[in-house]
Amino acid sequence: MTQTDIWRLSATDLTTLTRRGDLSATEAVRASIERMDEVNPDLNAVVEDLREQALERAEALDNARAGGKPTGPLHGVPVTIKVNVDQKGHATTNGVVALKDVIAPDDAPVVSNLLKAGAVVVGRTNTPEFSFRAETDNPLYGRTHNPWGRHISPGGSSGGAGAAVMAGIGALAHGNDIGGSLRFPAAANGAVTVKPGLGRVPAWNPSQKVERGLLAQSMSVQGLITRSAADLHLSMPSLITADARDPFHVPMPWRGPDPDAPVKVAFTKNTFGYALHPEVEKALDTARDALTDAGYVVQEIDPPDVFECGRIGYRTLMGEVLTLMQSDIEAAGSKTIQNIFAVYFQEFPPIVETEMVQMLAKRSHYAREWSLFLQDFPLVLSPFLPQPFFKPDRDTEGADGVHEVLGCAVYSYAMNFLGLPAACVPARLAQLPKGPQPINVQIAAQRWREDLAVDAAAAIEARVGQMCLPLWEKSE
């Protein structure tokens, strides 16, 4: 097997080889580093190169295996970590110049869990300032580009992660999501992800000086962006391992009980007055047909009010941001991010003071409505965005730009407010005037049933194929 072949391997295929000794961890990591050297200068997805320590760790893993020690489920898998999460000895910059020297004293739980599973970190990936854009650019590291071409934003805030994994830099990419920051890059790059539900993946940054706001704690989650649904089934059980530093983590297994067969799926094309692009509609139809052929019972029916829930949720989050983050944004943010936040506050008028407390209480009402609905329909297939993914810097173009980028993304941030899991998977490769572009759909699931969402994503992927393959053919 050549180095060219190795970087193409999925994490699932890679671990089959590394755990039985047909491929060394060192060979796997070296292939990923060589691929990074080839594509990252153009993409700027990885902004901190960790090759030296990665090769040292890979050699140690090889020696341990040769000495008879057991291998972890992710033995030798090259991964990337987003720069807004603590990795011991490295700066947790969050894309902000003022934080470039904030060195993490220890690993965050998500990093610890990946390392315990045998993964090898080859680099740290880019994020926008404060990790609060659906785009990835900042004054500290610059812009990340989409491997499909510069006509498409790479998404954000885990844009570096999405671009890296789809270009072949590592088999798994860590990211996080408070309003869509795993799913936006997955949709932009044609990757697969699942936004875990509230409490599923332990989270905490040892470098942080104060606790995050209540909504940041309850809406933000840690996860992975991958090239295939199977790699989520492989890797997420390691990610959800308990860590006492997150006192609200829920220690449940990845796989829940077998659901009633066949699984019922609520299918909706409702975009709440936003125009549904024909290519998005075709993607939805393909996903519906794939699930039907796989044995799911798909019924066209609207779930509880996503628009009201999503808008209220994001406006309440903006109230928390205004209260707790505004001074930091003004003190350390660029003029670009300050202007974007000013428009955010127009698009999502912040809910503050007494009304904020009322909306935090009403969150249970929305969650209860969805919980009851999901008893009958354990999965909900919907658009992720009503239009194909937007161009770079669209959110800098005033109210219209922010409205296209975030205003219409209610299916995204509603799931964060509800605390429900939601997978995002490509269902079509659209041939648009500016170039080819993947179109992703979303699959929301019952609480604690990320596994069901990933199963459905796998069924859609089986029909459509993996988007990395035509992408790699395009670049060769």
TrEMBL record:
Cross-referenced InterPro entries: Amidase_dom, AS_sf
Gene3D superfamilies attached to this UniProt entry: Amidase signature (AS) domain
Domain Amidase span(s) in chain numbering: 27-451
Keywords, comma-separated and alphabetical: Hydrolase
Pfam families linked to this entry: Amidase (PF01425)
Keyword Hydrolase: yes
Name this polypeptide is given: Amidase
Organism annotation: Ruegeria atlantica
